[in-house]
Amino acid sequence: MCAFKMYVVVLLFIFATLSTVDSVGKWSLNYIYTALSKPVELPGVHEFTAMGLMNDKQIDYYDSVSKKKIPKQDWMREKLPADYWDKGTQSRKSKEQWFKVNINILMDRMRHNNTDVHILQWKHGCEIDQQSDGTLKFIKGTDQYSYDGDDFLAFDDANMQWVAPVVQAQPTKRKWDGVQILNQYTKGYLEKECVDWLSKFMAYEDKEVSRADPPKVYAFAKKAKTVGNVRLTCMATGFYPKDVEMHIKKNSVPLTERDGVQSTGVLPNDDDTYQIRMSVQIPEADKETYECSVDHVALKKPVVVKWDGKCCDCTQVTGVIIGAVVVLVLLLTVVSSMLVLWKKGKIFAGKKGDLPATGIQAPLNGNGNGAAVLNMPGKRDDASSTDSGQGSNESLEKEAILPNGAIEE
Predict the structure, then answer these.
(1) Can you give the pLDDT at residue 240?
(2) Which portions of the sequence form the region Disordered (predicted)?
């Protein structure tokens, strides 16, 4: 399987395992580790990554390039001390080595070589329901491994044993089920320790949840692909939380999809705020009143921005064409004049067949190439002695998860 396809598998698996928490009272805390069998030449894809997610929002991150566990939310940075991140970094580095060993063992077991890229992933975490009295009710715990996007091994929390959906996972299942204290610890982590950390993070985020950033609203138009039309766009950005209501209005009447309105939907910005764009194609000569209306919890009343009727690039092409024509006319005039002078022997004097004696064949920068050279711009989330973000299998870092001839079964 080529690197690109395997990258797609990674994304599909990650998105498939992020359980969307629909209920307001439901919360989840998950950690996802991804290890590749070898590097791939794709931007942002590393041999090893680890990320923590609360309600599917990234709260911390580590990769094999930066080799540092970092917070992805302001409240994580503000509430957790420096030694929390130092210990978390060391734990992530340890797991990076653990995964490197075990993905090779698993490839041997699957009879795979290193020609293709293979992926070992681990996801673990918990989901709870916050009751009306504030208490937290455990719903389920997750501790599962996958190889190349397919299920490999999963922990059955209710029966406190491992489930192996493929034959190659049977040796690992037998080994782990043979250590009951390990299974007890895994169950305890999912039902107690993970929930405790989730509860703590929920309290830390309270301040963030109460935050409300108002949107900045813009209305502009650009030339459409259809001749004689422009595409009017309304954009709102920088708002938090993500719930927002936007309308493009014509003479105060909202336009709909039937009128050709298109929307990007709400998209995340890099600073944990959100943005949304809506657009519609209208005649360039349309003189009706168009406006963008945006309503958000951070606003006392909807923001209304009228389109000024201008098109950003409608005259640009015409100006470029006119400019090009002017330059062309001037160039033709100069060339014609030079031809006349050349015929009269006023310029490029020299023997017939020789290069004009003007020096223009010499390198402009002296590089000897006869041409100018332009300078082109070239997670246990550590606290005390427990491992909240790193998971229940900390002890396994001392031995291979997938034993082969190197260690005894």
Answers:
(1) 86
(2) 368-409
